[in-house]
Every structure is written in C-alpha cells, then in structure tokens.
Amino acid sequence: MDKEKKRTSEASLSGAVMKKAKKQWQTPKKNFSAAPSINPGDAGIWATCDMHKEGLCTVELKDLFDQYAQLLYSGPGGAGNGAVTDDTLDDAADIEAEIQQEIQGMQNTTSKQQALFTPVKIEVQCVLFFKTRQPVEPVSLVHRICEDAFYDKSLKRTRFVKRLTPMTRMGKANERSLEEVSKLVLGPVFHDDGREWKFAIRPTIRNHQAMKRDDIIKRVADLAGQPHTVDLTRYDRLILVDVYRNILGMSVVSDDYEKFKRYNLAEIYEPTPPKSTAGVTVNAATE
User: Fold this and answer.
1) Cα end-to-end span (Å), the chain
2) What is the DSSP letter of 187?
3) Which of 84, 193, 235, 249 has its CA 20 to 30 A from that of 105?
4) What mean pLDDT do residues 148-153 have?
5) Considering only CA atoms, which of 198, 205, 202 is closest in space to residue 234?
6) 239 - beta bridge partners?
7) What is the pLDDT of residues 24-39, one digit of tens each?
8) Is the dihedral of CA 155, 156, 157, 161 positive or negative?
C-alpha cells in the first residue's frame, strides 16, 4: 500500500514538473522580421561611399531616391520621415540620431513591402545596395540623377555617396544563371531593337572566387552575339556585370557613362584634376 502511494506521488510530481516545463517552453515568441537580402529576380542599385560612412550614405541615398521617386513615379519611395539637410549634416549628434531614426523607420514601417527602395546590409566596407521595386527602373533612374548633377551642381544633396551602379536583374553567381540573366537583360537591347551596337563589358567581382573575370566577359560577349561588335573605348552600349558572393547582377548603360564620370556623384560634383593638367598649371605658375 505504501509502495502504491509512493508511485502515485512520484507520478503526480513528474506530471507537474513536465507541465511546468512545457508551460515555460511555450513562452511567447518575439516577432522578428527577416533582414532584407538580395535574391534572384531582384533589381537594384549598388553604391559606394567614403570609409566608415555607410550609415550616413544610406540616409543620403534614401532621401535622394525618395525625391526622384516623387519626381519620376508620382509617389514617395518608401518609409522614412526625415530628410538630410545641410544643418543636420553640420551637427554630429543630430547626424547619429538621424541615422538611427531613419534606419529604424526603414526596418519597422508597416508599409515596408510597398517601399520602392529597400536598403540591404552588405558585408563589405564602403559598399551599399538598395533593392528597387517597380515602377523604378534602376538604369534610367541613376542616369537621370547623374545627368542632373552633371548639368546643375547646385542640386548637390550628397556628401558621402560615390559611385552608383544600376542593376536591371539579379541572379545566382553561376554559369547557368549568368546565361539566364544575360538573355533577360541583353535581349531588349541587342536582339529586339534591330540595331547594330558597338559594346564593351565591365565586370566587378567582390568576395567571389568561382567565376573568373575573363570567363564572364567571354560568355556575355557570346550572348550579345552578332551583328554587334566589341569596342572597348568607343562603345555605344556598356554591359555592367557585378558579382557579390553568390549573387550576380547585370545592366546595360549608354555611351555617356564616361561623360558622367562612370556614375560617380562625388567625381561629378568635384572632379579630380588630371595629373597632366595639374603639372602644366604648376609649371605655368612657376614661370
């Protein structure tokens, strides 16, 4: 009888412990949203910036893209209530607060899925990426930004942004995906237009070892095909290929790419003097 009571007591105790453990295990989970990432089928814009200025550059670009979204697409480019001004840029404390507020707004807004521009964290210093959503067309958007900056430097609204590189289509960084992306991006320009183009190809590779630069150039040139010809300096169209880790992107830009400083806003606003020109100036001053 004592043994029976002992078994019953142990069973009750065990059940209570299990029930308590189960209750503790089923604590409410926090609702963490997945961080934005670059995926096949995406479109977007790569950007480079000054060292350790990724946060400021993100805010600047978000503000710049929002302005052009309102101008070109009749609507704001996404969440974010603050705008970068000269006054805020002159105050370090305000800058840090602005960065945190802006990034937090980008990440937590309820209308995030409707944003035209979504920043994606990149594990490379001085490099940023913004995913874009229709109706944004990255190539025409970046061209318009650089064209405006080139012809009217009073429009300058960035201090840390350097080069902008539009990507019409993203895919996986392998040979099969390179071919698929090439057909989608090159088709409308090289096969549907009916014109003969002189073209060049410029790959940029970051944190990737599998695909080699020369192999990318050869395959993309083959896919551009006849009757088009390669011309590295006097091209009509330039094919940009960016590879980052396991993702690649591609776009086709026009022949004013060099004129607009390879879409480098910093160089458009404040061009670096050519060495030869600087030398002539020094000699003339000396004489």
Assistant:
1) 118
2) I
3) 249
4) 95
5) 198
6) 201, 252
7) 445 445 444 567 899 9
8) positive
